[in-house]
Design a protein that fits this description.
eleven-stranded mixed beta sheet, two-stranded antiparallel ribbon, 370 residues, 2 domains, DNA polymerase, domain 1, 12 helices, alpha/beta, TIM Barrel
Length: 370
């Protein structure tokens, strides 16, 4: 049995194995390249600036480097660990979606959107997804594999390059882990990718501008509170009835509403940070007055629930058999939660014309009183 196989069979040690063997994106390779070729150390800083400040997409664009060095770099070191297959641009909103091919042939999608004055990037953490939620197209693909920390963080770098190439003035200010896959089932790589995205020497996006959305992998909440206390946590709930939630989200058999509640209370106690409860409203499935009351009751049963804020999202009818609710129902849902003293925002989808509806624009939230 190889060393890696041993650690894979022993999950506690596997976490340590990943941390010890992790190298940040391509820059460890660049350091090795500089040393192996007898180059002066200042070349490392020049290469870092070319990639993370000037947003080059190939080494030939790094004009500060000698031509011979650029040619050698182009042959030996790829800036990104994937290649672009297709790029779609919404005709209605400032939204772009990229289909990327990984080095092993698997494909992922990532989205760039501008809900306000600056850009946000929606990244994927897995190729496919193992959870099979009834209303999610990604789950129907099945699970291919976890993405590496490099493959996750470089989705942001890809869009950074795109913004520079297109000469878009605004910067990337937010990153949301709401793309393909369940982030907390790829915990080690997601944590490392966030540390790299927020590293001021690289992408430098503050952790308070990074959000991780989970279907409720409750046993990772405390780890997240310890490892990334400044990152925003969003929990995709979608139903406050265990039996109905299991039908929508099979993961509820492993982590039910009581499990999520217990872990969430501990997370809130440790971080004192606002947590978002994501609730996709599906016509005829989870949009009745009874569902509104159950959600409010569940939230109000949680200690420190003034830190919880609900995001209501109309279901995309293009996914499976799920149907979009009427606008009046969304409005009634929001008013019902507000009447129970629960903070709520109705979010609208962006980029639905290119199937990139994970992009959402928030209205002015109604803040909950402490």
């Amino acid at each position: 049995m190889g060393l890696r196989s041993f650690f894979v069979r022993n999950k506690a040690l596997f976490y340590l194995y990943n941390l010890l063997n992790y190298k940040y994106m391509e820059f460890e390779k660049i350091k090795d390249f500089v040393k192996a070729n007898g180059l002066p150390s200042y070349r490392i800083a020049q290469m870092r600036e070319a990639v993370y400040v000037k947003g080059i997409s190939c080494w030939q664009e790094a004009s500060v480097l000698p031509e011979a060095l650029r040619q050698k770099l182009d042959k030996e070191i790829k800036i990104l660990p994937f290649e672009l297959v297709t790029l779609q641009r919404s005709k209605k909103e400032p939204v772009f979606k990229a289909l990327l091919k990984l080095n092993d042939g698997n494909r992922i999608e990532t989205v760039l959107m501008r809900p306000g004055k600056t850009w946000s990037v929606c990244v994927s953490s897995q190729a496919g997804c193992p959870l099979g939620c009834a209303f999610c197209a990604t789950g129907k693909m099945g699970f291919k594999r976890n993405l590496t920390a490099e493959e996750i963080a470089d989705q942001v770098l890809f869009w950074y390059q795109f913004i520079h190439k297109e000469k878009l003035a605004e910067r990337i200010s937010n990153v949301v882990f709401m793309g393909m896959g369940e982030p907390l089932l790829n915990y080690v790589n997601v944590v490392e990718s966030i540390k790299n995205i927020s590293n001021p020497d690289f992408l430098g996006i503050g952790q308070r501008h990074i959000s991780v959305s989970t279907s409720g992998i409750a046993d990772k909440f405390i780890n997240l509170a310890s490892d990334l206390p400044q990152v925003n946590l969003a929990i995709s709930l979608h139903n406050a009835d265990d039996e109905e939630r299991t039908a929508l989200m099979p993961i509820n058999r492993r982590f039910d509403l009581d499990d999520i509640k217990e872990a969430l209370e501990e997370y809130l106690a440790r971080t004192d940070r606002e947590v978002f409860i994501e609730y996709t409203v599906i016509g005829g499935e989870n949009d009745s007055p009874a569902h509104m009351r159950k959600l409010g009751k569940w939230i109000n049963s949680i200690k420190d629930n003034y830190l919880l804020h609900v995001n209501l999202i109309a279901c995309n009818p293009a996914v499976g058999k799920a149907s979009a609710p009427k606008e009046a129902i969304i409005k009634n849902f929001a008013e019902a939660l507000q009447g129970m003293n629960i903070g709520v925002t109705v979010r609208r989808s962006l980029g639905s014309d290119i199937s990139a509806a994970c992009g959402q624009l928030a209205a002015q939230p109604v803040r909950r009183r402490k």
